[in-house]
Amino acid sequence: MEWPEELVREAKKRIVPYDVEGFVLGKGDDRAQVMIVGEAPGENEALKEEPFIGRAGDELDKQLAYVGLSRESVYITSVVRSRPYKWVKTNKKGTGGTRKANRKPNQKEIFAHAALLDYQIKKMDPDVIIALGGVAYERLTGDTGRISEVIGKPIDTPIRKQEGEGYVLTEKEFTVIPLYHPAAVFYNPKIKEDIYKSLDQLREYFKQGNVNS
Known about the structure:
Layout (H helix, E strand, L loop, with lengths): L4 H11 L4 E2 L5 E2 L5 E5 L4 H6 L5 H13 L8 E4 L4 E7 L8 E5 L4 H6 L1 H11 L3 E5 L1 H8 L13 E9 L2 E14 L4 H4 L4 H16 L6
Parallel strand pairs: 3-4, 3-7, 7-9
Antiparallel strand pairs: 1-5, 2-4, 5-6, 8-9
């Protein structure tokens, strides 16, 4: 995807005050009809400047294949393009007793990169936006409820876009389908059944021809 230099420069400038590192714009087919929106890069993603690699990436690939998709047939991006981190204690030698750990982005960090996601959505105009996890779903819709209540359900809704120092809703409705973040199963294996129920719903949605070819 081609990016306006000023847009990228401003996004990098706005994120400077926060504890983040790296910068990952996204990857995939920018003519695809399916956009996948994650939360933020992790350590590996920030280093290699590629979204969803490592364990979470392997899990995403598996889930995409299950519903008949691949990385080459979608565009993958995230709400925040830099890795949010926090310092935690560690016993690992050579670290000085602390290390950087991933954390959820806060609302100021999300807003700092809001214009990037707005630009991608406007440029691609996807048939479906898959929101991976509650952070992505809330950023898109403004819904602060439990994602467990809506996973796998196609929701036709206006989405939030930056305007001034806040958000407004788009005039157009988009189909947003929330799913659990791929990494969620590592921390809570009990949700695996729910994950595949939601993927079954998504697979059926695609089978019904709801995405333009």
